[in-house]
Amino acid sequence: MKLKIENLVKKYDGNLVLNNLNLETEDINTLVIIGPSGGGKSTLIRILAGLENPNSGKVKIDDEKIRYNEKYLCSYRKTIGLVFQAFNLFPHLTALENITLPLIQVHKLNPVVAKERAVSFLTRFGLKEHMNKKPGQLSGGQQQRVAITRAITLETRFIILDEPTSALDPALTAEVLDIISELRKEGKKIILVTHSMSFAKSVADRIIFVAEGKVIEEGGPEIIDNPKTDMLKTFLNKTLKY
Ligand code: ADP
Ligand code: MG
To answer: What is the tens place of the pLDDT at every residue in 178-215?
Structure first.
């Protein structure tokens, strides 16, 4: 996945949230976004996912320009798997149905094939015995594993995860991070926002530090141990390096 972002601007109610953000990457598998709360990370990935329109600027993914009109975005969104902080599962559906419903309704898969695919992924991530439970009957870690399973079952060209472990305690965090590492080893394309610096270091091909609506610093995983800018240094000193 090759990203090129030029002069991206996003305002909410006159407030500049993305302030001429620029980014150009080589062909990478894993982009990790770090930065202080309120710096614009979620806004950036919502724009990358086609859920939000920028005020101005250009986004290109693998040399394809994202066109911010509904017709284009409608099909573009289907090419992306999304995982949010708060799981976003349908509460009235079982784990299995949460995964099969979008496959059948949105991606028009045959229901039998959808179920086979879902069960095989659920089994792989240790969720088979839980597949007929509703989200309320699952732990946070299990719910998030279902959400990730849903995102990868869609076989999208990449997966975007926005702080997928921030609502989880450490043991459940490890469960979820293991799955993400496994997906990375398989060569899945991943864009991930995380607060875990050690995890960022272990999975990133490229790390960008986003603050005040800009990419303040970027580089390989080594920038966690050797930050150059004062802003990243200050951020890392304040952040637990777990
Ligand atoms: P981060 O994910 O880095 O914490 P966000 O992208 O969520 O940052 O938010 C950046 C800024 O934009 C914050 O000040 C936030 O309050 C503001 N913001 C985000 N989404 C909206 C929205 N839908 N309406 C108004 N302000 C928003
Ligand atoms: Mg956020």
So the answer is: 889 988 998 899 999 999 999 999 999 999 999 999 99
Atom 5 (ligand 1) nearest CA: 40
Number of Cβ within 10 Å of residue 24's Cβ equals 12
The pLDDT of residue 241:
54
Domains of the chain: 1-79+158-242 (3.40.50.300), 89-156 (no CATH)
Q: How far apart are CA 54 and CA 68, in angstroms?
A: 8
Strands (E), the chain: 3-12, 15-24, 30-34, 56-61, 64-65, 80-83, 158-162, 190-193, 206-211, 214-219
pTM more than 0.70: yes
| Probe residue for ligand 1, chosen from 43, 45, 192, 215 as the CB with the greatest number of ligand atoms within 8 Å | 43
Nearest protein Cα to ligand 1, atom 16: 38
Of ligand 1's listed atoms, the one at least distance from the Cα of 36 is 3
